[in-house]
Design a protein that fits this description.
single chain, alpha+beta, 2 domains, Transcription regulator BetR N-terminal domain-containing protein
Protein backbone atom coordinates (compact mmCIF):
# COMPACT_ATOMS: atom_id res chain seq x y z
CA UNK A 1 0.00 0.00 0.00
CA UNK A 2 2.76 2.45 0.96
CA UNK A 3 4.68 1.67 -2.23
CA UNK A 4 1.62 2.46 -4.34
CA UNK A 5 1.12 5.77 -2.50
CA UNK A 6 4.76 6.75 -3.01
CA UNK A 7 4.59 5.85 -6.70
CA UNK A 8 1.42 7.88 -7.13
CA UNK A 9 2.94 10.83 -5.26
CA UNK A 10 5.97 10.82 -7.55
CA UNK A 11 3.85 10.67 -10.72
CA UNK A 12 1.57 13.48 -9.49
CA UNK A 13 4.57 15.66 -8.59
CA UNK A 14 6.00 15.21 -12.09
CA UNK A 15 2.62 15.97 -13.72
CA UNK A 16 2.42 19.26 -11.79
CA UNK A 17 5.90 20.21 -12.93
CA UNK A 18 5.43 19.64 -16.65
CA UNK A 19 3.76 22.08 -19.05
CA UNK A 20 0.40 20.70 -20.18
CA UNK A 21 1.66 20.21 -23.75
CA UNK A 22 4.45 17.84 -22.69
CA UNK A 23 3.84 14.10 -22.67
CA UNK A 24 4.55 12.55 -19.28
CA UNK A 25 5.74 9.18 -20.59
CA UNK A 26 8.05 10.69 -23.21
CA UNK A 27 9.56 13.06 -20.68
CA UNK A 28 10.31 10.23 -18.23
CA UNK A 29 11.78 8.13 -21.03
CA UNK A 30 14.17 10.97 -21.88
CA UNK A 31 15.13 11.45 -18.23
CA UNK A 32 15.57 7.81 -17.20
CA UNK A 33 16.73 6.31 -20.53
CA UNK A 34 14.39 3.33 -20.25
CA UNK A 35 11.86 1.98 -22.73
CA UNK A 36 8.26 3.02 -23.22
CA UNK A 37 6.78 -0.19 -21.86
CA UNK A 38 8.94 0.04 -18.71
CA UNK A 39 7.74 3.62 -18.19
CA UNK A 40 4.08 2.67 -18.63
CA UNK A 41 4.43 -0.18 -16.13
CA UNK A 42 5.65 2.41 -13.61
CA UNK A 43 2.89 4.87 -14.49
CA UNK A 44 0.26 2.12 -14.05
CA UNK A 45 1.78 1.20 -10.69
CA UNK A 46 2.69 -2.33 -11.75
CA UNK A 47 6.38 -1.63 -11.06
CA UNK A 48 7.49 1.05 -8.58
CA UNK A 49 10.08 3.68 -9.41
CA UNK A 50 13.37 2.89 -7.69
CA UNK A 51 14.99 5.35 -5.27
CA UNK A 52 17.68 6.02 -7.86
CA UNK A 53 15.07 6.81 -10.51
CA UNK A 54 13.21 9.11 -8.10
CA UNK A 55 16.46 10.93 -7.30
CA UNK A 56 17.28 11.38 -11.01
CA UNK A 57 13.79 12.78 -11.65
CA UNK A 58 14.12 15.07 -8.64
CA UNK A 59 17.44 16.47 -9.83
CA UNK A 60 16.38 16.86 -13.48
CA UNK A 61 13.00 18.50 -12.85
CA UNK A 62 13.80 20.30 -9.61
CA UNK A 63 11.13 18.50 -7.57
CA UNK A 64 11.83 18.02 -3.88
CA UNK A 65 11.75 14.41 -2.72
CA UNK A 66 9.53 15.31 0.23
CA UNK A 67 6.89 16.54 -2.24
CA UNK A 68 7.20 13.31 -4.21
CA UNK A 69 6.54 11.16 -1.18
CA UNK A 70 3.80 13.41 0.17
CA UNK A 71 5.64 14.46 3.31
CA UNK A 72 5.48 18.06 4.45
CA UNK A 73 7.83 19.45 7.07
CA UNK A 74 6.06 22.64 7.97
CA UNK A 75 9.06 24.58 9.25
CA UNK A 76 11.72 23.22 6.88
CA UNK A 77 12.75 23.89 3.28
CA UNK A 78 15.49 22.40 1.12
CA UNK A 79 17.96 24.99 -0.24
CA UNK A 80 20.48 24.74 -3.05
CA UNK A 81 23.76 26.41 -2.05
CA UNK A 82 25.14 28.30 -5.06
CA UNK A 83 28.47 28.95 -3.37
CA UNK A 84 31.61 29.76 -5.34
CA UNK A 85 34.41 27.40 -4.30
CA UNK A 86 37.38 29.48 -3.12
CA UNK A 87 39.82 26.83 -4.37
CA UNK A 88 38.45 27.18 -7.93
CA UNK A 89 36.60 30.51 -7.87
CA UNK A 90 36.34 31.29 -11.58
CA UNK A 91 35.52 27.71 -12.57
CA UNK A 92 32.69 27.33 -10.05
CA UNK A 93 31.41 30.85 -10.74
CA UNK A 94 31.17 29.89 -14.42
CA UNK A 95 29.32 26.66 -13.53
CA UNK A 96 26.76 28.56 -11.46
CA UNK A 97 26.19 31.04 -14.30
CA UNK A 98 25.82 28.17 -16.75
CA UNK A 99 23.22 26.46 -14.57
CA UNK A 100 21.19 29.66 -14.27
CA UNK A 101 21.37 30.35 -18.00
CA UNK A 102 20.10 26.83 -18.64
CA UNK A 103 17.17 27.50 -16.29
CA UNK A 104 16.21 30.66 -18.19
CA UNK A 105 16.51 28.77 -21.47
CA UNK A 106 13.99 26.20 -20.24
CA UNK A 107 11.36 28.83 -19.48
CA UNK A 108 12.07 31.07 -22.50
CA UNK A 109 8.97 30.00 -24.42
CA UNK A 110 6.59 29.93 -21.46
CA UNK A 111 3.76 32.41 -21.85
CA UNK A 112 3.68 33.31 -18.17
CA UNK A 113 7.04 34.11 -16.60
CA UNK A 114 7.82 36.68 -13.95
CA UNK A 115 10.83 37.88 -11.96
CA UNK A 116 10.64 40.07 -8.87
CA UNK A 117 13.70 41.52 -7.14
CA UNK A 118 14.16 43.78 -4.14
CA UNK A 119 17.77 44.78 -4.20
CA UNK A 120 20.39 46.90 -2.45
CA UNK A 121 22.88 46.32 -5.27
CA UNK A 122 22.49 46.66 -9.02
CA UNK A 123 20.79 43.35 -9.93
CA UNK A 124 22.90 40.77 -11.76
CA UNK A 125 20.26 40.66 -14.46
CA UNK A 126 21.45 44.17 -15.37
CA UNK A 127 25.02 44.54 -14.06
CA UNK A 128 26.46 41.51 -15.86
CA UNK A 129 26.12 43.46 -19.10
CA UNK A 130 29.03 45.66 -18.03
CA UNK A 131 32.60 44.31 -18.03
CA UNK A 132 34.23 46.63 -15.47
CA UNK A 133 31.29 46.48 -13.07
CA UNK A 134 31.19 42.68 -13.26
CA UNK A 135 34.94 42.51 -12.73
CA UNK A 136 34.73 44.77 -9.67
CA UNK A 137 32.00 42.62 -8.14
CA UNK A 138 34.20 39.52 -8.50
CA UNK A 139 37.31 41.38 -7.34
CA UNK A 140 35.64 42.58 -4.15
CA UNK A 141 34.55 39.04 -3.24
CA UNK A 142 37.91 37.48 -4.12
CA UNK A 143 39.89 40.09 -2.18
CA UNK A 144 37.73 39.58 0.91
CA UNK A 145 38.19 35.81 0.73
CA UNK A 146 41.44 34.99 2.50
CA UNK A 147 41.83 31.72 0.59
CA UNK A 148 42.18 33.49 -2.75
CA UNK A 149 45.26 35.38 -3.84
CA UNK A 150 43.92 38.58 -5.34
CA UNK A 151 46.13 41.61 -4.80
CA UNK A 152 45.20 44.28 -7.33
CA UNK A 153 42.21 45.03 -9.53
CA UNK A 154 44.36 45.65 -12.59
CA UNK A 155 46.10 42.25 -12.27
CA UNK A 156 42.84 40.32 -12.15
CA UNK A 157 41.95 38.66 -15.46
CA UNK A 158 38.46 37.40 -16.26
CA UNK A 159 38.40 34.56 -18.84
CA UNK A 160 36.51 35.43 -22.00
CA UNK A 161 34.18 32.46 -21.54
CA UNK A 162 32.94 34.03 -18.28
CA UNK A 163 32.41 37.40 -19.95
CA UNK A 164 30.45 35.68 -22.72
CA UNK A 165 28.39 33.64 -20.24
CA UNK A 166 27.53 36.78 -18.27
CA UNK A 167 26.21 38.43 -21.43
CA UNK A 168 24.30 35.25 -22.23
CA UNK A 169 22.75 35.40 -18.75
CA UNK A 170 21.42 38.94 -19.21
CA UNK A 171 20.23 38.08 -22.71
CA UNK A 172 18.29 35.09 -21.39
CA UNK A 173 16.62 37.20 -18.68
CA UNK A 174 15.38 39.64 -21.33
CA UNK A 175 12.95 36.92 -22.48
CA UNK A 176 11.13 36.82 -19.13
CA UNK A 177 7.66 38.25 -19.78
CA UNK A 178 7.50 40.54 -16.76
CA UNK A 179 10.19 41.89 -14.41
CA UNK A 180 9.68 43.98 -11.27
CA UNK A 181 12.76 45.75 -9.87
CA UNK A 182 12.48 47.41 -6.46
CA UNK A 183 15.70 49.27 -5.70
CA UNK A 184 17.07 50.56 -2.43
CA UNK A 185 17.48 54.32 -2.93
CA UNK A 186 21.13 53.99 -1.80
CA UNK A 187 21.91 51.44 -4.51
CA UNK A 188 24.61 53.54 -6.22
CA UNK A 189 25.90 55.11 -3.01
CA UNK A 190 26.87 51.68 -1.68
CA UNK A 191 28.68 50.82 -4.91
CA UNK A 192 30.55 54.14 -5.13
CA UNK A 193 31.63 53.82 -1.50
CA UNK A 194 33.03 50.34 -2.19
CA UNK A 195 34.95 51.50 -5.27
CA UNK A 196 36.32 54.54 -3.43
CA UNK A 197 37.57 52.36 -0.58
CA UNK A 198 39.64 50.18 -2.91
CA UNK A 199 40.97 53.32 -4.62
CA UNK A 200 41.99 54.79 -1.24
CA UNK A 201 43.97 51.67 -0.31
CA UNK A 202 45.65 51.73 -3.75
CA UNK A 203 44.13 48.50 -5.05
CA UNK A 204 42.42 50.28 -7.93
CA UNK A 205 44.48 52.64 -10.06
CA UNK A 206 43.31 56.11 -11.09
CA UNK A 207 43.01 54.88 -14.66
CA UNK A 208 40.73 51.98 -13.69
CA UNK A 209 38.76 54.24 -11.37
CA UNK A 210 38.04 56.53 -14.32
CA UNK A 211 37.03 53.56 -16.46
CA UNK A 212 34.66 52.38 -13.72
CA UNK A 213 33.27 55.88 -13.42
CA UNK A 214 32.66 56.13 -17.16
CA UNK A 215 30.96 52.74 -17.21
CA UNK A 216 28.74 53.63 -14.25
CA UNK A 217 27.58 56.74 -16.09
CA UNK A 218 26.77 54.51 -19.06
CA UNK A 219 24.83 52.23 -16.71
CA UNK A 220 22.80 55.23 -15.52
CA UNK A 221 22.05 56.26 -19.11
CA UNK A 222 20.93 52.72 -19.99
CA UNK A 223 18.80 52.33 -16.86
CA UNK A 224 17.15 55.69 -17.39
CA UNK A 225 16.29 54.69 -20.94
CA UNK A 226 14.94 51.35 -19.67
CA UNK A 227 12.81 53.13 -17.06
CA UNK A 228 11.51 55.58 -19.63
CA UNK A 229 10.63 52.77 -22.04
CA UNK A 230 9.25 50.31 -19.47
CA UNK A 231 10.16 47.47 -21.81
CA UNK A 232 13.14 45.18 -22.31
CA UNK A 233 14.81 45.13 -25.73
CA UNK A 234 12.72 42.06 -26.50
CA UNK A 235 9.53 44.01 -25.75
CA UNK A 236 8.69 42.46 -22.36
CA UNK A 237 7.42 44.49 -19.39
CA UNK A 238 9.93 45.98 -16.95
CA UNK A 239 8.77 47.95 -13.93
CA UNK A 240 11.29 49.87 -11.79
CA UNK A 241 10.44 51.08 -8.30
CA UNK A 242 12.61 53.20 -5.99
CA UNK A 243 12.11 52.34 -2.33
CA UNK A 244 11.91 54.98 0.38
CA UNK A 245 13.27 52.48 2.90
CA UNK A 246 16.57 50.61 2.84
CA UNK A 247 17.00 46.86 2.35
CA UNK A 248 19.18 44.58 4.43
CA UNK A 249 19.61 42.05 1.61
CA UNK A 250 18.68 41.21 -1.97
CA UNK A 251 15.75 38.85 -2.52
CA UNK A 252 14.46 37.54 -5.85
CA UNK A 253 11.93 35.10 -7.24
CA UNK A 254 11.24 33.47 -10.59
CA UNK A 255 7.73 32.24 -11.33
CA UNK A 256 6.47 30.45 -14.44
CA UNK A 257 3.77 27.86 -15.11
CA UNK A 258 6.26 25.14 -14.12
CA UNK A 259 8.71 26.78 -11.67
CA UNK A 260 8.54 28.67 -8.40
CA UNK A 261 12.08 29.60 -7.39
CA UNK A 262 13.21 31.79 -4.49
CA UNK A 263 16.70 33.30 -4.29
CA UNK A 264 18.51 35.10 -1.49
CA UNK A 265 21.89 36.71 -2.15
CA UNK A 266 24.62 35.91 0.40
CA UNK A 267 28.37 36.52 0.70
CA UNK A 268 28.47 39.16 -2.04
CA UNK A 269 28.34 36.98 -5.20
CA UNK A 270 26.75 33.81 -3.82
CA UNK A 271 23.15 32.82 -3.33
CA UNK A 272 20.87 30.20 -1.86
CA UNK A 273 17.83 29.01 -3.82
CA UNK A 274 14.82 26.85 -3.08
CA UNK A 275 11.72 25.62 -4.87
CA UNK A 276 9.81 25.19 -1.61
CA UNK A 277 6.28 26.52 -2.19
CA UNK A 278 5.81 28.06 1.25
CA UNK A 279 9.16 29.84 1.07
CA UNK A 280 8.25 31.12 -2.39
CA UNK A 281 4.86 32.39 -1.25
CA UNK A 282 6.36 34.26 1.69
CA UNK A 283 9.24 35.75 -0.29
CA UNK A 284 7.03 36.90 -3.17
CA UNK A 285 4.58 38.51 -0.75
CA UNK A 286 7.49 40.27 0.99
CA UNK A 287 8.89 41.66 -2.27
CA UNK A 288 5.46 42.77 -3.50
CA UNK A 289 4.70 44.43 -0.15
CA UNK A 290 7.73 46.72 -0.61
CA UNK A 291 5.89 48.47 -3.43
CA UNK A 292 3.81 50.38 -0.90
CA UNK A 293 7.00 52.06 0.32
CA UNK A 294 8.21 52.72 -3.22
CA UNK A 295 7.72 55.00 -6.21
CA UNK A 296 7.19 53.59 -9.69
CA UNK A 297 9.53 55.41 -12.11
CA UNK A 298 9.06 53.32 -15.26
CA UNK A 299 6.54 54.75 -17.74
CA UNK A 300 5.28 57.05 -14.98
CA UNK A 301 6.60 59.21 -12.15
CA UNK A 302 8.54 61.31 -14.66
CA UNK A 303 9.61 63.95 -12.15
CA UNK A 304 10.78 61.34 -9.63
CA UNK A 305 12.60 59.43 -12.39
CA UNK A 306 14.49 62.52 -13.54
CA UNK A 307 15.42 63.44 -9.97
CA UNK A 308 16.57 59.91 -9.10
CA UNK A 309 18.92 59.52 -12.04
CA UNK A 310 20.22 63.09 -11.61
CA UNK A 311 21.12 62.22 -8.01
CA UNK A 312 22.86 59.01 -9.08
CA UNK A 313 24.98 60.90 -11.60
CA UNK A 314 26.00 63.31 -8.85
CA UNK A 315 26.93 60.40 -6.57
CA UNK A 316 29.04 58.77 -9.30
CA UNK A 317 30.63 62.17 -9.96
CA UNK A 318 32.19 62.08 -6.48
CA UNK A 319 34.52 59.24 -7.50
Amino acid sequence: MITNELNTGLVNAVREKLPSKENLANTLMDILYIGKEAIYRRLRGEVPFTLTEAAIISRKLGISLDKMIGVSFQNNAVFDMNIVDSSQPLETYYSILEKQVELFRKVKEEENSEIGTSSNIIPLTLSLNYDMLSKFRLFKWMYQNENIKCKHFEAMEIPQKIVDKQKEYTGAVAHIRSVDYIWDNMIFSHLVNDIQYFCDVHLISDEDKNLLKEELLSVIDDLEELANRGKSKTGNDVKIYISNINFEATYSYLETDTIQLSLIRIYSINSITTQDHEMFRGLKEWIQSLKKFSTLISESGEMQRIQFFKQQREIIGTL
